[in-house]
Amino acid sequence: MKKIFLFAFTLLLSNCNAQQIINLENKGTYRHYPLGAYFKDINNFLNPFIGTYIYTNGNTSLKIILDKKIKDNGKYAEDVIYGGYEYIVNGVTIANTLPNTLPANTYAGSYYINGNAYLLNNSHPPCSTCTPGEKRLFITLQDTQCIYFRRLIIKREVVSGQEQIKIDLDLGNTVYYNSTDPEPVFNFALPSGSYTLIKQ
Q: Where is the signal peptide (predicted)?
């Protein structure tokens, strides 16, 4: 009888300590994230965005590398897309965060590109070319010349059998500076705008 009781108690204790796994796509429904939870990419929404992508226009090129990993901030864990970029104009490297991308930098939140949110086609900004229910990746890109984040919206496409991503890069609303100082003027390394990058 003691063995049965001990087994039942051990099973109950292990269930109490089990990590709560939540579908990443339901993360936005939580006002407070459960302590120790793992927001897992159960439906593999993030996986198709993984890869190396290149944009070229004359003497301008933009290379983006995206990968996926678990980000754990000590309170909860989540699957995220992370990576870096290289921007070259007229043979001059304006920004290059790729050396920080793989594999030495182990905390996903410290990469220049990271996030895991999504936008539906009727979300702002709307997407006229999206199919019903199509999800765009909505993450952040940090500028190299200041501690400033831009919103990075990524839409996957296949054109003539070639995988590509269309990205929209615009100003975010997170900037760190002393509120008593005059608002700084930034010289952004990577200009805002839309870019189409071919998957390599």
A: 1-18
Q: Cβ–Cβ contacts within 10 Å for residue 97, how many?
A: 23
Structure tokens at 165: 């991503």
Asked whether the beta carbons of 78 and 71 are under 8 A apart, the reply is yes
Q: Is the pLDDT of residue 14 over 70?
A: no
Model pLDDT for residues 56-110, shown as the tens digit of each residue: 999 999 999 999 999 998 999 999 999 999 999 999 999 999 987 655 555 555 7
Say if residue 49 is exposed, middle or buried (CB neighbours under 10 Å; 0-12, 13-18, 19+).
buried
The pTM assigned to this predicted structure is 0.82
96, 113 in Cβ contact below 8 A?
no
Virtual torsion, Cα 186, 190, 193, 199, nearest 10 deg: -160
Rounded to an integer, what distance in angstroms lies between the CA atom of residue 60 and that of residue 90?
A: 6
Residue 144: both structure tokens together: 């190299």
Beta-carbon count within 10 A of 34 CB: 13
Amino acid at 35: L
The answer on pLDDT for 145 being more than 80 is no
